[in-house]
Amino acid sequence: MTGFGRGEATGRGRVFSVEVQSVNHRFLEVRCRVPKRLSGLEPRIQQAIQQRFSRGHFEVLVLDKDLDGRSRTLKVDLPLARQYVEALRTLQQALGLAGEVTLDMLTAQRDLIAVEESAESLEESWEELGPALAEALDALAEMRRREGEALVAILGKHLDEVEATLTGIVLRAPELVRAQRDRLRERVAELLEGRLPDPTRLEQEVAILAERGDVAEECDRLRSHLVQFRTTLTQPGPQGRRLDFLLQEMHREANTAGSKSADATFAHEVVGLKTWIERLREQVQNLE
Questions:
Q1: Least reliable range by pLDDT among 19-23, 162-166, 170-174, 270-274
Q2: Which helix (H) or strand (E) holds 191?
Q3: How many alpha carbons fall within 13 Å on the CB side of residue 26?
Q4: I need a labelling partner for 137 at 20 to 30 A (CA). Which of 12, 111, 131, 252 fits?
Q5: Was domain 144-284 assigned CATH 1.10.10?
Q6: 219: confidence class by pLDDT, cuts 50, 70, 90
Q7: pTM to 2 decimals?
Q8: Which residue pairs from 216-224 have beta carbons closer than 8 angstroms and sit at least 24 positions apart in sequence?
Q9: Residue 206: how many CB atoms within 10 A of its CB?
Q10: Which of 164, 168, 173 is nearest to 261 (CA)?
């Protein structure tokens, strides 16, 4: 499911901002973008998400802002600056150049002045960052919950269509069996050129062939899967993978039923059934 959450926490002269967004994914995947000094906290961030969610692709962005400037200091490399001055003067004399070595020349050298972060343990940083992450995950979870409720309503409507289509197939199944028996009898009579076979043997063979085209078992299993699907939708916790498995079984039963009959109308109804099952599958990919 998709979602977005943002959290913020302040402590020790620093403000942490955490943004988390999620999109649909078959498995759980977490990617973090954090300041370099906090890279050691990435496993904890991933663990915090794994404890609350089971599916989805998560992008986590961590920003920190220094409020009083005490966490960062400037450090000037004086020995290296002296070497720059000596090197520039040597170059000036060797080439006979006019002018003097100025401060502008030295500040243009990026390696002379560096910004240093104040020493701070990962434990201290996590104490400040953790509440911001929790706030972001709470907001994201609430957004996913609302989306989940909407998806359940959509799935319910799709299930109604599947059941209506399946009911039509079940009602036509006996008629299809009788029609298939009649066609078999006519075909046998045509092959025998009007000669009458043993009636008992004929009925046995016709019954065996007609039974092969009976879709009652597939329809019964489909109905059972539909009941399990509706029950699973009402259960708490992540159910996306279980629903995905049920839909695979439903699609398999629909394929088997469609392969048992050559009737054009029946085949059209089975195609409609598989279409609704596929729509269910597309929506289930959005569930956790």
A1: 170-174
A2: helix 122-191
A3: 4
A4: 12
A5: no
A6: confident
A7: 0.61
A8: 216/170, 216/173, 218/253, 218/254, 218/256, 218/257, 218/260, 219/166, 219/169, 219/170, 219/173, 219/257, 221/249, 221/253, 222/166, 222/250, 222/253, 222/254, 222/257, 223/163, 223/166
A9: 18
A10: 173
Give CA–CA dist 285/25, Å, rounded. Answer: 7
Q: Are strands 28-33 and 14-23 parallel, antiparallel or unpaired?
A: unpaired
How far lies 148's CA from each of 47, 199, 223, 229, 275, in Å?
23, 60, 24, 15, 22
**The residue to which tokens 């794994």 are assigned:** 50
- Which of 130-139, 175-184, 227-236, 254-263 is predicted with the least confidence, judged by mean pLDDT? 175-184
Where along the chain do the CATH 3.30.230 domains lie? 3-68+120-140
Average pLDDT (18-45) is: 90
- The closest alpha carbon to 277, from 255, 56, 262, belongs to 255
Domain 3-68+120-140: which CATH class? alpha beta
Residue with tokens 């080439």: 95
- CATH 1.20.140 in the chain is located at 144-284
Tell me the β-bridge partners of 16: 9, 64
Tell the residue number behind the tokens 């004399």, with chain if given. 93
Cβ–Cβ under 8 Å, residues 137 and 48: yes
Q: For 130-150, what is each residue's pLDDT tens digit?
A: 999 999 999 999 998 888 888
- Beta strand 28-33 with 56-66 is parallel
Quick: pLDDT tens for 148-173.
888 888 898 999 998 998 888 888 77
